[in-house]
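Bench notes, afternoon.
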Amino acid sequence: MSINYLVFVKELPSTADWQNYLNQAEIPLTLLKSVEVANYCGFVPMRLGSYKAGVEIYIDDFDPNYLPEINSHLGDRKKMITFSFAGDASTACCAYGAAAALAKFANALVYCEGFLLCEQILSDFKEILPQARKEASQTPHKLLLDPVTKKLPQFKRKGNDFFYLPIGQCARGLMVWPRPRNESFAVGLFVWPLCAHADRLFIGQCPIDLGIKAHFPDIYQQSTGTCYWDYNNSGSADELVDIATNKLVPYFKSIEDPRALADALFQQFHKGYGVYEIEKTAMACAAVGKYDEALIMFERLKETSNPALRYDWMVALQERCAKIAAFIKAERFEDIDKQLEEWKSKNIKTFGIAGLLKKSG
């Protein structure tokens, strides 16, 4: 059942004035600057602290025939602001806070089966605020990830990334992150040998035989190994758990040994075009003494690189590969190990996984 708070004012406040009232009352609500109060009609987005929230608001000229019993109390307050909300704490909190600010600083009267004192509205606001914050934090993404996290004990979640344990010599796992406007979310695989330099954790190309499908097949990008899924699919969490448990875990176990990892990457990418995939494969091969395979990958990088593209990141990547290639040709194997170990240490810091490495042995 809906609850209606009727707030009567002499003049509609501007958005800036209403926000100022909220700030003075130390009520943690933020109104959208882009929408003026006079245009409120329906659900009005707000922020409750750092969370998205909102409440239905309607603006009307008060009709004396609507509630004739209160006419004598209104005086010159002929503008009516209606807050309509149900039983959830988030929308109720927005209604309480916004109405209380008007009552305290705009000489408004608040009516709901009787006139309400400002102090009582503020008390109700403070009482419901903790629950409202909890509700507001339950975004579609959080509601998806929380049950997935609980059902994947063999993975450790850091933000939107699920790291498969033990990490060993390679970061393996699943990325799940929201897309713009929370209409859908993206799912991707990462397999990154720690010895291969990285400025961030990169999405990897899925081996085709894993058969990970997309809920939006028309925008599935096989080249990046990223799938786009729909939050509204009630089975998404269970599907993610099924994929991780029955497809990714066996795959990750099969490449746990560094030599098996090098073999798998070489098989997958020796004819590939992705420069990051080529680099990581070459470094994985060099780390286990598969120097011929590493040199093949370095040559592949030359074949696939456009010399006209001289971006800083591309130049740095080419220089790293040229350095290890030169060490291999000069049989400076200790220097190779030293350099790869240096990149590994840097990656552990970049990925923030030092604690996970200790826990997983």
